[in-house]
Amino acid sequence: MRTIDDAPFLDIFSEEFQADPADLVERLRRASWLVGTPIGGMVIGRAQVQTLLADRRLRSSVPEIVRLQGVTEGPLFDSLNSSILALEGDDHTRIRKLVNRAFTPRAVDRHRAEMRATLERLVAPLRGAGRCDFMAAVAEHYPIEVMCHVLGVPGEDHEKFATWNKAITWALSFDLGAHADDVEWGMSQMYEYVTGLMDDRRRAPQDDMISALVQAREADDRLSDDEVRMMIAALLFAGYDTTRNQLGLAMFLFATFPEQWSSLVDDPSLAPKAVEEVMRYRGAVGAVPRLVVEPLELDGYRLDAGTMLMLSSSAANHDPAAFHEPLVFDITVEREPHLTFGGGPHYCLGASLARAEMQEALPILAATFPRFTLDGEPTWRPPMGIFGPETLPIRYD
User: Fold this and answer.
1) Other Cβ atoms within 10 Å of 3 Cβ, number
2) DSSP E strand boundaries for 196-305
3) Cα gap 79→29, rounded to integer Å
4) Which among 106, 310, 314, 357 could disulfide-bond with 42, CB atoms 3.0 to 4.6 Å apart, if both were Cys?
């Protein structure tokens, strides 16, 4: 039985990996479904990623990642370790039971009209301009405005939330140590504001998610104030940053594969398939960090307790064992479900909301920019953590 020490090694911090991670992974895949890295193992086989996502002998490694960056105590450490992204077992199950109803496809569908109205408002000034930075003009604003609407944050306060959320998004990056003060400031500002909204919704409930969360009840159980604030922080972090980057990645892909964009322009009903293919081919979240808490054996390898693993959804989404021509981007084909939303007990709670936002955005963008190209080179985030364009200059008719 082999261990990680016997697996091929991949330096995920090397310039070669930063420049072209996909090529390195594809070469290593032929030798092993598991590779060693400077911070543990990386799982690159789809079957093994899917299995381990659901394996209760693994848990979220958020606490370990936070500690690795020097945040070992204090309010920030406590907040991150009590978030739904870090909780496990009965605590995690309890909170998901209480909030699941607010995230069903039916609950999300009620907000689709507002999603369309928000995006139409954002693209209206761009029509006829001929060029823009798509990230600054659209992707930075659309997801936070939708999320604020869903939560019930008044329109005049959306910019405050955007500012706080930009600070909070460093929380689960590999730059947390350098931005811990920013994250703590963003969380404290947002917590103070949300506390006022929670008090208001208890007195006068409205048709919004904050009302739903403060009233969420399962038998004799309900969320505490701290749990509501934690849930909203997690929603803002996940709902803003991932959708912002996923939308930018979608437009970059369509600029790279203009024939696929033409297909969407000609047939906007392809939007749901296009969303799934974009997320499979270039997901904003490329890996799920996990910690082995009980030793296990899987397909020729022994994984000891204490082993850090990155379950690479990106590699799994390109595994030829599961996908025909996985390196081909095609929004018209039927494919196996992608793993960008994770799986198992930590399957993305906001998956239905993220899908809806993308599904409503793409047809409007296709109508606004029926022919567009890149207007210079995009700038990119590092490939570790949530990935996407910092800037995406485009030129259009």
Assistant:
1) 14
2) 217-218, 221-222, 288-292, 296-298, 301-303
3) 37
4) 310
Structure tokens at 149: 């609407």
Q: List the structure tokens of 347.
A: 């399957």
| Dist CA 8 CA 317 (whole Å) | 20
- Band the pLDDT of 370: cuts 50, 70, 90: very high
Least Cα distance to 260 among 372, 354, 340 occurs for 372
CATH number at residue 389: 1.10.630.10
Hey, which of 99-108, 167-176, 386-395 has the most confident mean pLDDT?
A: 386-395
Percentage of the chain exceeding pLDDT 70? 99
Domain that holds residue 136: 4-396
Q: Looking at residue 283, what is its pLDDT?
A: 95
Q: Which residues have a Cβ under 8 Å from the Cβ of 8 and sit 6 or more positions away?
A: 28, 31, 32, 35, 36
Mean pLDDT over each residue of the chain, to the nearest integer: 91
For the chain, how many structural domains are there in total? 1
Residues 73-101, mean pLDDT to the nearest whole number: 84
